[in-house]
Description:
- One of its GO terms (biological process) is proton motive force-driven ATP synthesis.
- By secondary structure, the protein is an alpha+beta fold.
- It has helices at 7-19, 153-158, 177-194, 213-225, 246-259, and strands at 30-37, 40-44, 53-57, 62-68, 73-77, 89-96, 98-101, 109-110, 127-130, 147-148, 161-162, 202-209, 232-237, 263-269.
- The protein has a six-stranded antiparallel barrel.
Amino acid sequence: xxxxxxxxxxxxxxxxxxxxxxxxxxxxxxxxxxxxxxxxxxxxxxxxxxxxxxxxxxxxxxxxxxxxxxxxxxxxxxxxxxxxxxxxxxxxxxxxxxxxxxxxxxxxxxxxxxxxxxxxxxxxxxxxxxxxxxxxxxxxxxxxxxxxxxxxxxxxxxxxxxxxxxxxxxxxxxxxxxxxxxxxxxxxxxxxxxxxxxxxxxxxxxxxxxxxxxxxxxxxxxxxxxxxxxxxxxxxxxxxxxxxxxxxxxxxxxxxxxxxxxxxxxxxxxxxx
Length: 273
């Protein structure tokens, strides 16, 4: 004789199945590209996106949401925007773009996302910082009152640079702009050795934007031979990497030292790319 379950048991079974039916589904918020150009994509439909959140285009290219407006979102494209066209789908990832920071980064070469590319293994004992944060206001900042020695007599005597100051190195091709930046890093070796406490040490962050891998490798060798890697961090965004993210990443790594009572020099080479 075949047994048939009672009505109450059948109802309980159905309710249990219906309750757990949609628990394995994930709902993604998707938008569409309205316009794209100069590395910036305007996207409509991402109403719940967060500032600094990473998104993914239909072509696989990623970007970061920076400009949040009422009708659309301005997204900085990582890499070339030639594969993105009007009407393409854009998906949220739900993750805020951040990079590792701290003294564990010293002596390491990382890409624009903070992933080590020097073959020395994974990073240890570090914290993570968002790449897009609000800059301190005028009231919170100190006036430029402390000099930053570059070790170059022409610079330190004629156009001295102060801590907290930005300086543009401008010139034609092959005139020694990069050489000035590298010499400044190398000269910190002697100056850091004179410091009696950590607050007098100047840490260096070199951001290579759009440079060849061979050029970055030569720089690593120069700094290594001069024992300058021990107080330096290299962020390498080569031609195949997301160059727009590299300056933000390098700045986030340098701000770690600022926020902990130390000094840091950040070099962007070069911003024209």
